[in-house]
């Protein structure tokens, strides 16, 4: 299935739901700009010198008003940009329309099918006969996966003549990926090799993808340098101080009218995000229980007077289940959901969609799906007539069921890091500084992100004298 694209007046390609929403999208982008001082500082500091001039950047990251500010910061710095979302539900259509109208080639709409999602990825990576992008901004690693799988298939085709077989896997998304690669292989048998030859590097924003990339580095299969912006100091150490942690489970509260006070809420995982959600649910009046595999985190929860049990202990008693263990598979199974109370709410705050067993739920014999709000479905089991409410089809709830993360969060703790990582990779592209490895964001760039933010807040740093510095 090919993706039918259109062209803006500027001749940029796009595929969005409704271009008539562009003016409203522009208004939302302008509001976001006011809350994203670090990115706006990037424009004034780097805009005049155009350090990214000539760079072709592909983004695989949620298409929101905040992302638009990142995209337009990159174009102000001289880059050309093609973009797709990293989640089928996370695109506000007005934001996608505004980007397509004004600044970049974009392929995204809310409610994409999996086939549409991967076709959008394919188009975002397609820069024509001269290869792919120079740089990739990644959130989850899907663009990285497509290139690696493409090169593997091209090598097999050259040596054996065999095309990739989508039926060789039972993973629905991998089946689509292999289909895309197979469909283009005979007409362009070196497509992904050409992409890799041009690619300077990638900046990656999610913990699970970074962990996967470290494994690829260890086994020698990583094809290009990666800067890990997820573990930058400003993100990991200062989010709480900056007010950047989510203050409540926004997607949960937006998707369904539910009174949290008095409910029993289970948070699956007491890592950084789990702590935030446990605290927010507790503050809202819920009795919070966490499930945890790590004894130290379990002890931390107990020190906050939060009970630690297994999911099996509480599955039939709780009212709300929030999975925070990003990157994990099968945390909540269909058997768990069958044992839950009628109308128990199930959602996922991690960036991947494997934590909740949606394939098992969707294929359960006789199960009935009732959609009563966008991305809010009640699944009724035939033998009990009891149902569970699943938000955003098990995908990231805070972007599936709300517009986006707060602008200040994305500016200070993610998007400016991405811009600095892209600039670093581009400026060092001919020096040999970065090999086919995963790197931390350099310390001087972490500090640069902080200083860019401070400038717009009217702060003035004291400068050390040589004596003090010594």
Automatic annotation (TrEMBL):
Q: Cross-referenced Pfam families, in alphabetical order?
A: AdoHcyase, AdoHcyase_NAD
Q: Which cofactor does it need?
A: NAD(+)
- Give the domain of life: Eukaryota
Free-text cofactor note: Binds 1 NAD(+) per subunit.
Q: Keyword annotations for this protein?
A: Hydrolase, NAD, One-carbon metabolism
Q: What is its EC number?
A: 3.13.2.1
- Keyword Cytoplasm part of the UniProt annotation: no
* SMART domains per record: AdoHcyase (SM00996), AdoHcyase_NAD (SM00997)
Enumerate the InterPro entries for this protein. Answer: Adenosylhomocyst_ase-like_sf, Adenosylhomocysteinase-like, Ado_hCys_hydrolase_NAD-bd, NAD(P)-bd_dom_sf
Q: What protein am I looking at?
A: adenosylhomocysteinase
Q: What is the originating organism of this protein?
A: Eucalyptus globulus
């Amino acid at each position: 299935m090919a993706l039918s694209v259109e062209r803006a007046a500027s001749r940029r390609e796009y595929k969005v739901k409704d271009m008539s929403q562009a003016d409203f999208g522009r208004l939302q982008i302008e509001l976001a700009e006011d809350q994203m001082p670090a990115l706006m500082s990037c424009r004034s500091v780097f805009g005049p010198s155009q350090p990214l001039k000539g760079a072709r950047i592909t983004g695989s990251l949620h298409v929101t008003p905040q992302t638009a500010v990142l995209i337009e910061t990159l174009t102000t710095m001289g880059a050309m940009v093609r973009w797709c979302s990293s989640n089928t539900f996370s695109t506000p259509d007005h934001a996608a329309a505004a980007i397509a109208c004004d600044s970049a080639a974009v392929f995204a709409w809310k409610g994409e099918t999996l086939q549409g999602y991967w076709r959008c990825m394919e188009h975002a990576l397609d820069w024509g006969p001269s290869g792919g992008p120079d740089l990739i901004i990644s959130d989850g690693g899907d663009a990285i996966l497509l290139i690696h799988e493409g090169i593997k298939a091209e090598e097999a085709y050259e040596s054996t003549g065999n095309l990739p077989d989508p039926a060789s896997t039972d993973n629905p998304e991998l089946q689509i990926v292999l289909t895309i690669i197979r469909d283009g292989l005979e007409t362009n048998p070196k497509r992904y090799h050409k992409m890799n030859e041009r690619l300077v590097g990638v900046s990656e924003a999610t913990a699970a993808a970074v962990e996967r990339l470290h494994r690829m580095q260890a086994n020698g299969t990583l094809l290009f340098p990666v800067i890990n912006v997820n573990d930058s100091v400003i993100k990991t150490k200062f989010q709480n101080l900056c007010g950047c942690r989510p203050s409540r489970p926004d997607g949960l509260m937006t998707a369904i009218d539910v009174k949290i006070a008095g409910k029993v809420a289970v948070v699956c995982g007491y890592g950084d995000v789990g702590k935030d959600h446990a605290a927010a649910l507790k503050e809202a009046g819920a009795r919070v229980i966490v499930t945890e595999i790590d004894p130290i985190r379990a002890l931390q929860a107990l020190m906050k007077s939060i009970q630690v049990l297994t999911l099996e202990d509480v599955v039939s008693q709780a009212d709300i289940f929030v999975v925070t263990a990003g990157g994990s598979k099968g945390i909540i199974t269909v058997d768990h959901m069958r044992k839950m109370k009628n109308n128990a709410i199930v959602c996922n705050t991690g960036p991947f969609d494997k934590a909740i067993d949606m394939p098992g739920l969707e294929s359960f014999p006789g199960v009935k799906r009732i959609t009563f709000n966008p991305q809010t479905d009640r699944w009724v089991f035939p033998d009990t007539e009891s149902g569970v409410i699943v938000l955003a089809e098990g995908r990231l709830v805070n972007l599936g069921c709300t517009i986006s993360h707060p602008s200040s969060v994305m500016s200070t703790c993610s998007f400016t890091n991405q811009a600095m990582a892209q600039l670093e990779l581009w400026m060092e592209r001919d020096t040999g500084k970065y090999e086919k490895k995963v790197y931390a964001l350099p310390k001087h760039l972490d500090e640069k992100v902080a200083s860019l933010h401070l400038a717009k807040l009217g702060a003035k740093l004291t400068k050390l004298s040589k004596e003090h510095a010594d």
